[in-house]
Amino acid sequence: MRIISDFHDYYDCIQSVGQDQNLVYFRNKRIIKHGRQWPFPSISTHRFWDRECNLDITQYVVGFCDKIYPMLSVRQVPPNKSTLCYSIRDIDKFVYTKFRKKYYNAYLATERRNKSAHKLWNYQQGRRALLSFFSKCEDVADTFGHMFTVDPVDQHGNVEPPPHTYPLFVARTRNRHEIELTYNQCLKDYEFYRVLDPPTAFQELQMYLGGLAAPQEIIPPISDKDMIGAKGFNEWSFRKMPKDK
Prior knowledge:
By secondary structure, the protein is α+β, with helices and mostly antiparallel strands. The chain has helices at residues 88-98, 101-109, 127-139, 198-213, 224-230, and strands at residues 2-5, 24-27, 30-34, 55-64, 67-76, 83-85, 149-150, 164-165, 168-175, 178-183. It is extended.
């Protein structure tokens, strides 16, 4: 697979191993803006500004070859540098390294619905809620295939079929009233190499785009009469033949 793009991503290096010259990935970014309803599983981003034990969370979703991967950008209160988290283990590590021990213990205690932990940690962002969030994302990870297909629009705003299918996107809530999907986004900027290494990412892209380039052949309709003959039956297969007089 050859990649034609105006930027470099982390899996591009695999092209040096060998290329299928007949398969080309034109990696041009396209931004699509949707309504305010977030279509993916979500976690509470509400903040309690008067509490030290709170995470400033920004939700993202990486769509890659018909599967979604949740990503949370988290910061400590007061806001510091953001850390990208793709799993509950990433969140655990962040809380352990950024918060004092009593707050870390309270964060863990929320998984057991400990009442005393509620006094120190926001339950909506406790370990139990976050664990449930990542679990829900995993359960429905392969049910968003429709999000990879976008109707092309011409310069006059008219939709022109057929729709275009992209292999990857990054979704985020831009504000309270708008969701933004950037197709063919640079995944290196989101540290996606922590989820899929370069060879695996390149191979999945190649298989996905190869499937789009070679769609399944449409089987022409066959009449009932021809189908009966193809199965080895004749007009007397389910009838009794007449007896000679």
